[in-house]
Design a protein that fits this description.
This protein is mostly beta strands and 70 residues long. The chain contains no helices and 4 strands. The chain has one domain. The protein is 0% helix and 30% strand.
């Protein structure tokens, strides 16, 4: 497989885009040592993955009970 190399906007690592069966594009890692695309999703290895999340982070755990539990 010869996939074109792109670069992640968050960490600048080499990636390639795969089409899922549903037709959506998914970024995948590209191994520069072997020169081959891998089957590892880039969101599993990207240190900047939080920049690309669509949902906000979950709220912090409660430090004290709400007034109705006191």
């Amino acid at each position: 497989m010869n996939a074109p190399v792109a670069h992640c906007r968050g960490c600048n690592q080499a990636i390639w885009w795969r089409l899922n069966p549903s037709g959506k594009r998914q970024p995948m890692d590209y191994d520069l040592v072997t020169g081959q695309p891998t089957q590892t999703p880039h969101h599993a290895t990207c240190p900047q993955v939080q920049r690309f999340r669509r949902r906000p982070e979950p709220a912090a755990p409660l430090t004290e009970l709400p007034w109705w539990f006191r």
